[in-house]
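Researcher: I'm preparing a figure for a lab meeting and need a structural model of a single chain. I don't have an experimental structure, so a prediction will have to do for now. The sequence is pasted below. Please return the structure as tokens so I can convert it later.
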Amino acid sequence: MRVGTEVQMKHLFSGLCLASVALLTTPAYALCVSEQDIRDTKPSDDGKQITLKMRDGRVLVNHLQGICRDMRFTGFTWVLHGSHDICENQTVLHVLQSGQTCILGRFEEVKVKPAPKTP
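Model: Understood. Here is the structure written out token by token.
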């Protein structure tokens, strides 16, 4: 009976280790923005980032998980399923004409410098 209990404990311990690794590698939350809240988008020249200017004045840069060089020439569409939310590490964009696809990476908020005051 002791051997069976020992095997069960090893399986339990292995399962707990795998669960803790999954929790550590999964982000606590994903930053999402509504498609309607985006005022403008600008892909980088190298196709590695996309800048989103938001209606509330924020500027977000997304570091794409791949490279989509053609999106600055032909544009792109969001691939959304059900919701109109665009989420880091989840949302896919599809480049027009070339058919390239990229998955969004993490968002980074860019601090916008206020305009200098004129005397």
